[in-house]
Protein 1
Amino acid sequence: MRVVVDGRVHEGRAVDLDGTVAARELAAAIRDGHDRITVDCPDPGRVHEHVGLVSDDASIRPRTALAMAARSRGLSTPEDERRRRVRERLQALSTPEVDGRAARKRVAEAGSDVQRLRERVAELRGRLDAGDDVAEADLRAAIRELSERETERVAAREELTAVRREQREARAVRRRRLELQDRMENLARTARSKLVDRLRSDFAAAVAAARRIASEPPSGPSADPFDAESVTVALAVARLADVNAPLVLDCDRFETAAEAAAWLDAPVVRP
Amino acid sequence: MILVVTYSRAARLSLRNVCRTHDDAVVTRFGRAALLEETAFGAFQALRLQEKHGLDVQLERTEPFNEFSHVDGDVREAARAYENRDQPSTPYERFAAGRDLPSPDALRGREL
């Protein structure tokens, strides 16, 4: 790797920056790029999302991270193929877009027009019957308009009925899509669980080794390695993973970046 | 009541969060669907979901089902008689044919 900070160049598999940059900025530089810091290195793999930055305030999901470490080593499960096939079926689904909003609005507007005009016709008739000097032409016009609106309402209702029928079919496809998405998520979960099982004992050993270098007393035989401190877990996972891009180590478990790189068998840069 | 049915993971999650946050407006929840109180507040929550998730949210309105107002007597009688039949394995079509009850096809053809 090659790290350039403020014009200064550092090269090698293990780089110590002696506190000249912040750990998060360094991690960002490796991931996406940064104004002040340039890091030339291979693209980070998915396990980097979990152990790319090892520090006391970085949280980690131990099982997910361990599953990613397993994948970085090329491990796979039968669920992977099944998931690919489900994804293919998902992509082949086309969800028709049937929007009923315009049809509903048309029905509502026609309905309120009809109501308004019925009241107007009734009012005009009433006034005419009461001998009021209201033009019969007005009443006839209102009756005509009412008839038009009633016809429109019938048409609008028919349109809405047709749209609702289409919506039902469209929703059946959406429901299918949701089922497939759920299936993919379940397969992913099963795959992760299997990968974790494959590396479980290696992980326990790596956690024990990480605790040793921290000079922590060894935990009892029933202690769950997944409950270890987050830095310990991250170091253990990183050690097991096949890491290509440098890891940012913001912890005090190692004297030098070189020592860390050797222990982790991974490129290391310390901020 | 207002019936909300969701058709995507995101919409389903939003519905769950709404039901958790405003359980006073929720009559019942069934996974990816829920019945909300038919108040302006219930409608507000329902419309928010539709605004957020578009076609992945379906909104309907329910009405109390009164079998005496909404359903003809022969249909009620068919249901009662069939559920009290002697032979459990008799399908309704055969049961109805032997008695003066509407056939399944006839029932399907009739709107409430």
Note: The beta strands of chain B are 2-6, 26-30, 33-36, 57-61.
Protein 2
Amino acid sequence: MIFGLIENGFYSLFALVPGLEPFAMTRFLSFAMLLLILLIRPTGLLGRR
Amino acid sequence: MTRGATKYLPLLPVYLIYGVLFLIAEGMPGVWQLMAMLVFYCALGQAFNIFLGMTGYVNFGYVAFLALGTYGMALSIYHLHQLPLGVGIVLLGLLLAMVMAVLLALAVGAVALRLGGAYFAIATIGVNEGFRYLIEGTKMWGGSEGIIFSRQLLDTFGRDVANKLSTFWADVSVMIIAALAALITLHFIRGKIGYALMALREDEEAAKVMGINVTKYKIIAFVTSAALAGLIGAMAWGLKSTHVFPPEAFDVHYTVEGIVIVMLGGAGTLLGPVVGGLLYGLAKYWLMVILPGFQLLIFAPIIIVVVVAFPEGIVGVLRRELKGTPLEAFVL
């Protein structure tokens, strides 16, 4: 749910910026989020530390 | 023979194989493309082996370095073709390819090398895919349409020279890069770096406790492997095909092929990736001819057989069998 909200929200934001391809940028964002999660909290929000 | 010269004996079979491949391709008509494919796989395997084979870490985003190398060559030729640089434009392309791959490796290494095991593998997939979508999303470097620079190459060199560059010299350059990768691998295996990488591959925590700076050696191996990948991408993909297209350039199956080649031949060995590249390339070519469309099916059985039957690879088994014989000095 959280991922879906972020992705949809950012798709709309990227669509407003001229010169950006929103679908590709949203895909980029999802992989950037993956990297961030792996670095900060690889067990996830509800997982044990 | 002096000790110094003896150190280079393991390079003999590697260079002999490349020499024979070149002579066969030059002497027999219609075989050049097969030779080019085999040399590409050997080069890919050798470059990949420097990181995967020596550290045990699997970088699933390795193809991003090849892609960046391709972009380096493409950008050099596309934007600088009007300058009177002649063949310097190709050399600049090679330099740019290497620099771009190294910069990405440093950026990725600083982040992903802090992770271990499966997390590192997942992170590197993310880097590859993320970088591809960044290029497409920001429309930089041609975006999802990529860059076609055949016209610029023709304008700079004329039809005959451009043709020769894209066919003969691109493939010979890949062979030279493969030979360079072999020399670097030997230097790593025989030197302090090799001992450190072997220690961290066996047990990273124990290596740290022994005082080995594992991060430094991982980054050295990672960046070296990436630099070689950039050079290979620049010549084997950039100069040879004269275009770069993101979905092709960042296709993860090249990374999987690299993994298969290294594991089949023998991870961490010098001769292993060459043997793996030859066997894999010949098997794929043979299947392309007799069962077109099914050649990719060989990945899975190869990986399964290697992991189950001989995890040290073909050259690993060969080294075991040749231990104590005079041939041992030539197989590393």
Note: Chain B touches chain A through 19 residues (CB under 8 Å).
